[in-house]
Design goal:
two-stranded parallel ribbon; mainly alpha; homodimer; 231 residues; Rossmann fold; globular
């Protein structure tokens, strides 16, 4: 299970658990701006009764506003034209999901896991190419041709159960599964509270609004009363 | 350029240089048994006049005799039957080349490199699925569908110039390109001298024999007179 600390991967984890999967959560510390999601992911894994492994990787070449604090994290692009929205935002981290999936694949082969779960979804598509179904189909072909399990006819399966769901549908599913939404962290900025203006905050806010629910993360300290690990 | 310290990637580096590529060498420290190849790779990059970046990654799940010193590195399988040779050896590291390529792809996208070079070859095929042409075709499809450069119609190209060459052909090519063979390290065991019995030593010895050349690595200390960094 690729777990980020965000809402989508938390719902995916709870969904996999509800389907009977025994999950090992892989959490990545890639010097992301919103590093606090790592701490949140560990808490979420613990609440789901799963073990977690934090993997530290270095991407010294940067190339993303999620990595380079000198770059600007763009605000929500809701007001942009359709044509502008086809551009890939500066928060895109080069090949990030490919790296994450590669590690998950290595782990899955070694521990003989049957599947990798990832919470990607293409509906509220913000321009990330590595969130689209065609990418996951291509990665599955890599598993079939480039791994031991693939050659032996037992390829690890990449599961993207949220891929065609909207944010509101994901939130409704998460509510049914009793996902601790208050613990999830979506904001690209690593501040003490969600910034409310980045694209990720915007998608989340819109999702809760469409689902007719209140986002419990906005009153997290009252509900969970835990100290955030300082950076 | 994915550089391992082995013979194949050194030839690939010198070939890329001869074709006019300005190369950045990525060297991986993945706690491999033959960790001394890292030091060799840095030396080779320096001799080729290229900069190098050593990336440390953890694969805590193991799953390979190259990672787990309690496992046995098999001797050459020359005497095995064809059927047995279809098995994948215990030196296979789960998804290793996929991880390496993912990092190289991230780097290439960030620095706007046109190509990734890797010294894989399928001719002296020892059973590694991630050394076959079909794997590299599949990975190219991942780049096309899952990256910014791919979506924008300028995908990073994965170059495998040795893929259809035999070891003897690679050695002859390396000789023409004046590759410092004495610096390259192929042995899977990390001893002070090549073990001479593992599959990698065997392929190398056979390659030099078929090319009608003497392997200068067997008298490396005399020729280069450098101290190996201790582990």
């Amino acid at each position: 299970m690729l777990l980020s600390g965000g809402l989508d991967s938390a719902v995916t984890l709870y969904l996999a658990r509800s389907l009977g999967y025994d999950c090992l959560c892989l959490i990545f510390d890639y010097a992301q701006r919103h590093k606090k999601e790592i701490w949140r992911a560990k808490r979420i894994a613990g609440m789901a009764g799963c073990s977690a492994e934090v993997l530290r990787i270095k991407l010294p070449w940067g190339g993303s506003s999620l990595l380079d604090k000198k770059l600007f994290v763009p605000a929500s692009r809701d007001n942009e034209t359709t044509r502008q929205r086809d551009n890939i935002p500066s928060t895109y981290v080069p090949a990030r999901n490919i790296i994450f999936l590669s590690f998950a694949l290595s782990c899955a082969e070694a521990i003989k896991a049957k599947a990798i779960f990832i919470g990607a979804h293409a509906h509220d598509y913000s321009g990330y190419p590595d969130c689209r179904p065609e990418f996951y189909r291509a990665f599955s072909a890599v598993i079939a041709s480039g791994t031991k399990c693939g050659c032996q006819g037992r390829p690890v399966v990449v599961k993207t159960p949220l891929i065609h769901k909207s944010k509101a549908q994901i939130i409704r599913l998460g509510q049914r599964l009793e996902v601790p939404f208050a613990l999830t962290w979506s904001c690209y900025q690593g501040g003490s509270r969600p910034c409310g203006s980045c694209e990720s905050c915007n998608f989340r806010e819109k999702g809760f609004r469409e689902a007719g629910l209140k986002d419990p993360a906005l009153s997290i300290k009252k509900r969970f009363n835990f100290r955030e690990r300082s950076r």
